[in-house]
Design goal:
The longest helix is centred in the middle third of the chain and has 17 residues. The protein has 124 residues and is an alpha+beta fold. The chain has one domain: HIT-like (HIT family, subunit A, 2-Layer Sandwich), CATH 3.30.428. 19% of the residues lie in helices and 19% in strands. It is built from 2 helices and 5 strands, in the order H-E-E-E-H-E-E. The protein binds 2'-deoxyguanosine-5'-monophosphate. The site of 2'-deoxyguanosine-5'-monophosphate has 13 residues, from strand 2.
Amino acid sequence: MSQHPSHDPSCIFCRISAGEIPAQKVYEDEHMVAFRDIRPRAPLHILLIPRQHIPSMAELRPEHAALVGHLLVKAGDLVRAEGYTDGFRTVANTGRVGCQEVYHLHFHVLAADAPLGVPPTFEL
Ligand code: DGP
C-alpha cells in the first residue's frame, strides 16, 4: 500500500493527469501520462508521469518497480512516434540538490536531430 495519495489536488501534474489543467498530451493510459514540457529545451521535450502521486525518485519503493518500468519502456516508443530515430536523453531531477521544480515524479525525455550536448552546459 502506498503512503502517498493517488491524487494530490495541490499538485500541478496530478491536475494535468486528471484533465483539470490543459497540457499537450502525447500519450495516456491507466497508469501514466506523457505531455509536452511547457519550457522545451530540445525540439522534442516530453514529460512522462505516473498518474499516482509519488513526489520524486527518492520516494520510490519496490512496489513501484513495475510502474516505473512501464514509464521507461514507453519512452522509446513515444520518441519514435515523434519521428526521432537516432537516440534521446532521459533525465529525472530529484529533490533540492537535483533542482527538482515539480514534486510529482517525472522523467524528461528529450530528442533532436543532432547531439544535445553534455551537462552542465545543457541544463534541465
Ligand atoms: P523539474 O521538476 O526541474 O524536473 O522540471 C519540471 C518541468 O515541468 C519543467 O521543465 C517545466 C515543466 N512544467 C512545469 N509546469 C508545467 C505545466 O503546467 N505544464 C507543462 N506542460 N509543463 C510544466
